[in-house]
Prior knowledge:
heterodimer; A: D-Maltodextrin-Binding Protein, domain 2; two-stranded parallel ribbon; 13% strand; B: two-stranded antiparallel ribbon; palmitate (chain A); lipoprotein (chain A); periplasm (chain A)
Amino acid sequence: xxxxxxxxxxxxxxxxxxxxxxxxxxxxxxxxxxxxxxxxxxxxxxxxxxxxxxxxxxxxxxxxxxxxxxxxxxxxxxxxxxxxxxxxxxxxxxxxxxxxxxxxxxxxxxxxxxxxxxxxxxxxxxxxxxxxxxxxxxxxxxxxxxxxxxxxxxxxxxxxxxxxxxxxxxxxxxxxxxxxxxxxxxxxxxxxxxxxxxxxxxxxxxxxxxxxxxxxxxxxxxxxxxxxxxxxxxxxxxxxxxxxxxxxxxxxxxxxxxxxxxxxxxxxxxxxxxxxxxxxxxxxxxxxxxxxxxxxxxxxxxxxxxxxxxxxxxxxxxxxxxxxxxxxxxxxxxxxxxxxxxxxxxxxxxxxxxxxxxxxxxxxxxxxxxxxxxxxxxxxxxxxxxxxxxxxxxxxxxxxxxxxxxxxxxxxxxxxxxxxxxxxx
Amino acid sequence: xxxxxxxxxxxxxxxxxxxxxxxxxxxxxxxxxxxxxxxxxxxxxxxxxxxxxxxxxxxxxxxxxxxxxxxxxxxxxxxxxxxxxxxxxxxxxxxxxxxxxxxxxxxxxxxxxxxxxxxxxxxxxxxxxxxxxxxxxxxxxxxxxxxxxxxxxxxxxxxxxxxxxxxxxxxxxxxxxxxxxxxxxxxxxxxxxxxxxxxxxxxxxxxxxxxxxxxxxxxxxxxxxxxxxxxxxxxxxxxxxxxxxxxxxxxxxxxxxxxxxxxxxxxxxxxxxxxxxxxxxxx
Lengths: 425, 283
């Protein structure tokens, strides 16, 4: 009897564990993780589909480990993944994503910009992922800070010199530095250097890593840092210090500013990052949808991608989360006021006359983390440890050159195209 | 009975040995291989990358400094607490219970508790401001205030980790026969002499266990440091975490893990040699 009972329990457990994964398409995402956003995805965005979808979320490091474990074990449970360009790159590098060229062709016809679709190739000949959401980085300021703006400065078209003067004025008036950057362990500071600082001051990212413009740029950045709060190296999401009143001006990813702005849209202005001597650098953020090779439900996953890239679904997504459509469509007018502020700044960034677009790194494979580390180590040594700029750039440039040679990654915009690995000049 | 079946003891411990081998030795061997190989061939590349990293020397230094600052203080406080509590009759259990509360809190939660106290908008600044000692928020946990940051982390670690040392030492003190102390008292030994000559030598096994446990834990310090200092105060486990998660280079992360293991094993050996225990008193 006892034995029978335990067999019974075992059988039901196995059945309970096994059946949902058979019936549902498992969709694993590193984006839209907070419980409010995940609930919107489950209850609204993924509604309208015939087959049920199991939407699960994972932090990026665990996502990488899980995908690699499933690939090595050859036992796939996940049919669809949603992740950032840089998170999908290592998986594509191991040839573990289904080519999605038919879908891409359909979407190109439906009006998805070819530049986005090209990013989804990750430097390969076939489509690796379908662009799902886009975002970028902007600056936000509390309205109280505006009265310290230097004379003649337009907050929508700041230069670095004006930002520094503004920071000094705020520090003099309040006794504390009021500008903040997300340079904490989980902050996105590396993207600031790759997409904003380097393109603005040198017009490149890799080629120009240690040239004279870069040295001059770092000088300016050190001056800026003198009016940046030293707590910045503890900040991960700038919405927190901004809402807590620890800083008045901050740079971050739109999704990481959204909570503060949406909670009090009347208190903030949102505007593009400043311009340096070579223009106003900015970097788009793309999250993509991809199907792992060996996925148990390719048809279901394809249906979900088609659903998520419909104009209606894209607009629905934009109204609820701090990301924007990858399709070329206008946002509705009844947006959440906070999201509308962010959308305005994104638009202003993209259409700025002096904009220098910095594309996402392509071809780095699983070295994306170490690529970021080159910039963060330079920052740590030059700014935090006060080492001579030229020496640091020389030795970090050697690390960067080796990294590029090891991966063979060709240059991406704004660097001039290269034959073979992108050189550090 | 065991003579009939000499294999029985082995059979009985087999499950635990197999369990450990499966979940500890196999990953250990894999980690060592991961650290000492590159693309499937033996190589020291990961070790070189680790040793050449800008935060390597700092993380080794910080980890050792923290261990050196925290462990002696914890042992001293635990000895004092244990001796004090042994003199108490009624209410002893309640006091011990209160003292061991930090044991029930996870590392990260302990770090968050101290972050709430020490951050810019924290309780410490509120208190100092209330007393009129500071005019505005003072930062304690930034890269510009390394001494305050170190002290903050050390205090948090001491608060969190002393209870485990105390539990072991109280257990050791309970085993010291009262007669020894009474005899010493009869011969005119003062409290200090009794402590140094009678109590301390007799609790050596407990002290040894406490030191080993605490030191190994000190080299594994991570969550409290991560919560309070982030990247401002690199430690070995924090670097392993960063290489695994941010840089996604599992080889270098494994090299750090192996280094931490080697340091912990070396420290254990040193304690086994220095704090000699009478073999007769071993379990």
